[in-house]
Design brief:
It contains 3 helices and 9 strands; from the N terminus they run E-H-H-E-E-E-E-E-E-E-E-H. The chain is α+β, with helices and mostly antiparallel strands. The strands form 2 sheets. A 5-stranded mixed beta sheet has the order 5-8-9-7-6, covered by helices on one side. Helix 1 runs antiparallel to helix 2. The protein is elongated. This is PH (Pleckstrin Homology) domain-containing protein. Keywords: Membrane, Transmembrane, Transmembrane helix.
């Protein structure tokens, strides 16, 4: 068995454009209110600290790994943040693989191993996802920014 993954993808928490825009707009509002505060009151200085705090947290979140997806040895390994457990999906039990959209909503929260109504979801950013159905009828929805390569790697591993 090969120890080298056929497919690897890392998804980061702070790289989705909508939350980044929201955080930067909040920082800009803090800076604008500080600029228009009369006589630079002590409470006005707090707005600068909050604005810079938002910008620094936004930069840190851009490097914070949410989860990593690997296709290796006839299985999909999903490894999450520090306290998350490793999730292993055996490709021998998968009966159906297809691409699709993650959700019909414009705003989606990042999730890792969310069990809800017979589906298990893994998502950070983007609109595309891989839908895996196992023998028991359980649906895995794994969000990916490289859906076609992910699908190709899964089908390649299932043929072995």
């Amino acid at each position: 068995m090969a120890d080298k993954p056929v497919f690897t993808e890392k998804q980061y928490l702070g790289r989705e454009w909508i939350p980044v825009t929201i955080r930067l707009m909040l920082a800009l509002i803090c800076f604008a209110v500080y600029f228009f505060t009369d006589e630079r009151e002590r409470n006005g200085d707090l707005l600068v600290v909050v604005g810079f705090g938002i910008v620094i947290i936004s930069i840190i979140m851009g490097f914070m790994l949410h989860f990593r997806t690997r296709v290796i040895n006839k299985s999909i390994l999903l490894d999450g943040l520090w306290t998350s457990r490793l999730v292993k999906i055996d490709l021998n039990s998968i009966v159906k693989v297809e691409t699709g959209t993650y959700s019909r909503y414009l705003f989606n929260n990042p999730v890792y191993n969310l069990h809800k109504k017979g589906t298990i979801r893994f998502f950070t950013a983007g609109n595309d996802a891989i839908h895996l159905t196992d023998r028991d009828g359980l649906l895995y929805i794994i969000g990916s920014q490289h859906c076609n390569e992910f699908l190709r790697a899964i089908k390649e591993e299932m043929k072995k």
